[in-house]
């Protein structure tokens, strides 16, 4: 699907004609939010062609648009047909380089450059947008990357008003997302130079993981994580703010947020758990972790901690899982942690014999004590409550 300012009709839905016996249309599904906008330079970000005028300036509204998208937590990059050094030097002279991550400036195909940007950021191409003044360049990207949304250069001034560039809330993590991704690039470069084992590299990062009960201020971060995460989301369910607040106030539920820091800086909120506690079993309704911490084993660390807590409480664990074409790694994390489909009396005792949604499996684990991670220092609450109190 290529959205190109109205010039492409592919992927559009026809407007239905509603007769007397038809049902009212379903509520419109909000568009997938753009995570990264990739800018062309010549006659898109700035007026003119750099090879013909080394002093060219951005179009009048471009700085406002770039700054506005950045403030909303939308990353931005560059994919331009230019010699890299003079193009980057001009962006530096304009004071704009800090806004752009993992740029692709050169003479190859733009679809290849956009694909590399998505891969380096760990984003699905459906969350990438591309803006260019040339119809041929947009068509080339659309052909090779049909999920990338394409926009004409003259559409730049309208981007801040479009729903796909308008998250419902802007969290602390969103406002510093560019800084966090720049730290991620430095982290990746450090790993490429590291000569020891993978575990030795992880230990060298001096990582600290915090798991804590969600506060009022953190609920928007939880909602954002359930909305933006697809690769490491066990069910794909999006929990809106109102539903999260109801669960926080319910004594039978735990809403837990995971954050991670290391010597390069904060990763921000990287995980969310929604847990329903029954006397004989705890039901993990949702586990979602950021794809950018997959290599650090965040999902495994969280599941091991939860299994250890359940073992101490002498309860089994149940976990909802809906298989998709993107969350295979989450399924592997569950299986590696020991979850399976075996029948158990705890399912009925927990009032969870199955799901109303036939696509959702309810996995099962007989919890046993687990050792803590050797590569991450974990700070987490005690979920075990006895007659004498916690623990």
TrEMBL record:
Renumbered residue ranges of the record's region Disordered: 1-22
Cross-referenced Pfam families: Hydrolase
Transmembrane stretches, start-end: none
Name this polypeptide is given: Methoxymalonate biosynthesis protein
Lineage: Bacteria, Bacillati, Actinomycetota, Actinomycetes, Kitasatosporales
